[in-house]
Design goal:
heterodimer; A: alpha/beta; Alpha-Beta Plaits; Rossmann fold; 3 domains; five-stranded parallel sheet; 11 helices; 22 strands; B: alpha/beta; 2 domains; nine-stranded mixed sheet; two-stranded antiparallel sheet; globular
Chain lengths: 395, 275
C-alpha cells in the first residue's frame, strides 16, 4: 500500500471522496477506505483536513550510477559485413569516452564474425564483446535482445549507442525494455554535459521542425539510436584492443520466429548514404525527363541522384532515392539541390552535407537559407551549363 | 483472428509552419489526423478480418479529443475502441507509453495480433511497437509490408530491409509494425461514423485506475527520459547568392567548389588533377 488512512484520525468528512479522480475511496462505517483502484496520485492527501491520509511515496531520486562505466556501440553486421553506421558510432564513442575518461566497447553478435573484431578496434574500440552462436547467424529480435541484455546486465555500461537502421530500431527498444533504461531515438547530436557528466541526446522532432535535447537521468545505460550518416568514422589504425568472448545459449522454441528467406532486391537507385556527391531534384524539375539531366550532372561529378517527396510522389524517381524526413538522411561532401524549395522535411535529410548548392528560380525559396552557394535561375539552363563547363575542365 | 490496433492522434506535420521571426512551430490551427502508419496498420487488421473474421479493437492513448481517431477507426470498420485518457498519462516517453499501452492491451481481453504503425510522424521514434511487444513477452515483426498467410499458430510476413526484404514466420500471438507500402487505407463509411458518434458506440474510456497502474509509473513521472531543451534547427552556411549571367555564375560556382575541401569528392576535378 502506498496510500493509507489512519482510521483514528479520520472524521469521515468525505472531502477525499470528491477529490479522488479515480473513485478509489469509499466511506465504510464513517471512515474513509482506500480501494485497490488507487493509483497513488496523492490528490486526497492535499484535501484531508484531519491529516488522516498518509503516503510512503518519496520524490523521485536520481540513483547513484557510479558502477556503470564505458561507452558501448552495437556492431551491426549482416552476412559478415559491418554496417557503416557502427564505425561512425565508434568515432563518436571515442569522443564521448575521452570526455568521460571511460573505455569504448563494441558489441558484436553473429556466427563466424570474429574477424570483424579487428575492424572495430581499428575504428576505435578498446574492447570487443563477442557473442557467437548459430541462432545469431541471421538477425532475429529475441536471440539478439537476449544476448545483449545479458552483456549489459553483467558489464553495466554507462552509454550504449546503436545505429538507427532497420535492425537497430527493431532491437534497441526491446533491450531498453529488458534492462529498464530510457531510450532516445534517431539522435543527430550527442555530447557530454560538462557539469553533470550525463549524455545530452539531441534529435529532430515534429518532422524536423524542432530539435529536442533529451537526458536520461534515471536509468543506465543512457541508450540512444543514432542516424546513419550523421557521425563521422575515424580510423585509428595503430590501435590495440581486446576481444572478450561470451558464451550464449538459446532454444528455437524461445525465439518464436523463423527467417524463411532473405531477398536482396536489385537496387533501382543507388547507395545515397555512401555517395560523396548528390544531385537532388524537387518539384521544379518538372518531369521524369528533367531528372535525366540531373543524372548526367551526377555522372560527370561521380555522384548519385536523389529527390524530394514530391519528386517521388510524382513518380519521377524511385522511393529509395528520397531524401528527407520520410526518406533517407544523407551526408555527402557536395549536395546540389535543383528545383528544390527546401521544405523543412527535406532539409532534415540533407542539412549535414558538407557543401550545399542550390539552384532555384524563386529567390525566396528556403533552400537558399541553408545553401553555401546559390544560383537564382532555371535549372534547365544552369545544369546543362554546369555539365558543359565540368566536362571542359576535366578535358 | 482477433486484433488490437494501436493508433495515435497526431498533428499533421506535413503542414507545419514555422514562425518566421522566432523559428518556433506554430501549433495553432494544426489539423489532427490518425498517424499515417497507424492507418495502414488498421487497414491491415481490417483486411485480415474481412478474410478470416474476428474482432478488431482500436486502442489509443491521448487527451479526450483523441476519441476522434477511435470514431474514425469505427467508421473504417473496427468493432470496438478503447481510449486511454488521464492527466497522469501526459508527458510520457516511450518507456512509460509502452508500459501503459501494454497494461491496457492485457485489460482488453483475448487477441492474437497487435498491429501498430512503424512510427508516428510527431515523434518518429519507432520504439513503441517493439517495446509493447517486449512488455507483453511476444515476438514481433517490424517494417512489415505484406502478410502472406495466417493460421491459428503462425503468421508469415514480408518485412522491409534496407536492401530488400525478409520472409518471416512468426509465432502467435505477435506484434506487427506496418509501413505505408503495405496497403491503402479504406475511407470511413458515413453510417458507421455516425454510429461511432452515438452514446452507445462501443468505445470504452479507461484511466490509470481502470488499467491498474500507479500514476508514478506512467506519464511524465514514470518516464526515464526527459526533454531538457527544445530549439529551432540552425544552419551555419555561407548563404552566398552568385550573381551574373549563366556562364559566369556557373564558372564562379565551379571555381568555389574547386577551391573548397569538397573538391576531392568530385570526379570531374579529380581527373583534372591527374592531368
Amino acid at each position: 500500500m502506498i496510500v493509507w488512512v489512519e482510521k483514528d484520525l479520520c472524521d469521515g468528512c468525505r472531502r477525499c471522496l470528491k477529490a479522488c479522480p479515480y473513485g478509489a475511496i469509499e466511506i465504510k462505517e464513517g471512515k474513509a477506505e482506500i480501494l485497490d483502484r488507487c493509483t497513488a496520485c496523492g490528490a486526497c492527501l492535499e484535501v484531508c483536513k484531519a491529516k488522516a491520509i498518509f503516503s510512503d511515496a518519496e520524490p523521485k531520486k536520481i540513483p547513484d550510477f557510479s558502477d556503470h562505466t564505458g561507452v558501448w556501440v552495437f556492431a551491426e553486421q549482416r552476412n559478415g559485413r559491418l554496417n557503416r553506421v557502427c564505425l561512425e558510432l565508434l568515432g563518436k564513442a571515442r569522443e564521448l569516452g575521452e570526455a568521460l575518461d571511460q573505455e569504448v566497447c563494441a558489441v558484436l553478435l553473429g556466427s563466424r564474425v570474429s574477424d570483424l573484431s579487428q575492424t572495430l578496434i581499428r575504428y576505435g574500440a578498446d574492447k570487443v564483446y563477442l557473442v557467437q552462436h548459430k541462432a545469431l547467424t541471421h538477425y532475429r529480435t529475441i536471440p539478439y535482445a537476449d544476448a545483449v541484455e545479458a552483456l549489459v546486465k553483467i558489464h553495466k555500461p554507462n552509454i550504449f549507442l546503436l545505429g538507427a537502421s532497420h535492425l537497430g530500431r527493431d532491437l534497441a527498444p526491446r533491450i531498453s525494455r529488458r534492462v529498464g533504461c530510457g531510450l532516445t531515438a534517431d539522435c543527430t547530436e550527442l555530447s557530454i554535459d560538462p557539469e553533470e557528466k550525463i549524455l545530452l541526446q539531441t534529435r529532430p522532432a515534429f518532422g524536423g521542425n524542432v530539435m529536442a535535447t533529451i537526458a536520461n537521468r534515471y536509468s543506465r545505460p543512457q541508450m540512444a539510436t543514432v542516424r546513419p550518416g550523421v557521425m563521422v568514422a575515424v580510423p585509428t589504425p595503430d590501435k590495440k584492443g581486446a576481444v572478450v568472448r561470451h558464451p550464449f545459449q538459446i532454444t528455437e522454441s524461445r525465439i518464436g520466429v523463423k527467417v524463411l528467406e532473405t531477398v536482396r532486391e536489385k537496387k533501382t537507385g543507388s547507395d545515397l548514404a555512401e555517395a560523396k556527391v548528390i544531385v537532388a531534384g524537387g518539384r521544379g524539375v518538372g518531369d521524369a525527363q528533367g531528372f535525366q539531366i540531373l543524372r548526367e550532372l551526377a555522372d560527370v561529378m561521380g555522384g548519385e541522384v536523389a529527390g524530394t517527396r514530391v519528386a517521388v510522389e510524382e513518380g519521377w524517381i524511385p522511393p529509395e532515392n528520397q531524401v528527407g524526413q520520410t526518406g533517407k538522411s544523407v551526408r555527402p561532401e557536395i549536395y546540389i539541390a535543383c528545383g528544390v524549395s527546401g521544405a523543412i522535411q527535406h532539409r532534415a535529410g540533407m542539412m549535414h552535407s558538407r557543401y550545399i548548392i542550390a539552384v532555384n528560380k524563386d529567390p525566396r525559396a528556403p533552400i537558399f537559407q541553408v545553401a553555401d552557394w546559390g544560383i537564382v535561375g532555371d535549372l534547365h539552363e544552369i545544369v546543362p551549363e554546369m555539365i558543359r563547363q565540368l566536362q571542359a575542365s576535366s578535358g | 483472428m482477433d486484433s488490437i490496433v494501436l493508433i495515435k492522434q497526431v498533428p499533421d506535420t506535413t503542414e507545419v509552419q514555422l514562425d518566421p521571426k522566432t523559428g518556433n512551430l506554430i501549433r495553432e490551427g494544426l489539423k489532427s489526423i490518425i498517424n499515417p502508419d497507424d492507418a495502414h496498420a488498421l487497414e491491415a487488421a481490417l483486411t485480415l478480418k474481412d478474410r478470416f473474421g474476428g474482432k478488431v479493437t482500436a486502442l489509443s492513448m491521448g487527451p479526450m479529443q483523441a476519441i476522434d481517431v477511435i470514431t474514425e477507426a469505427l467508421g473504417m470498420g473496427a468493432d470496438a475502441g478503447v481510449l486511454l485518457t488521464d492527466r497522469a498519462f501526459a508527458g510520457a516517453d516511450t518507456w512509460a507509453t509502452s508500459f501503459t499501452l501494454a497494461r491496457a492491451i492485457q485489460q482488453v481481453g483475448s487477441w492474437d495480433l497487435v498491429f501498430c504503425g512503424r512510427q508516428a510522424i510527431d515523434g518518429d521514434t519507432a520504439q513503441i511497437g517493439p517495446q509493447v511487444a517486449d512488455w507483453l513477452g511476444i515476438p514481433q515483426a517490424a517494417y512489415v509490408f505484406a502478410i502472406e498467410s495466417v493460421n491459428p499458430k503462425h503468421i508469415t510476413v514480408k518485412r522491409r530491409l534496407e536492401d530488400g526484404y525478409e520472409r518471416l514466420q512468426c509465432r502467435l500471438p505477435a506484434l506487427i509494425t506496418v509501413i505505408g507500402e503495405m496497403n491503402t487505407p479504406r475511407f470511413p463509411r458515413v453510417d458507421r461514423l455516425l454510429a461511432g458518434c452515438r452514446e452507445k458506440a462501443p468505445i470504452r474510456v479507461f484511466n490509470a485506475a481502470d488499467i491498474g497502474v500507479k500514476t508514478r509509473e506512467v506519464g511524465l513521472e514514470g518516464s526515464l527520459t526527459h526533454v531538457i531543451k527544445t530549439f529551432a534547427p540552425k544552419f551555419k552556411r555561407e548563404g552566398k547568392i552568385l550573381e551574373g549571367g549563366k556562364e559566369s555564375v556557373v564558372r564562379e560556382l565551379i571555381q568555389r567548389l574547386k577551391a573548397s575541401e569538397g573538391a576531392t569528392a568530385c570526379r570531374a576535378f579529380a581527373s583534372a588533377c591527374e592531368l
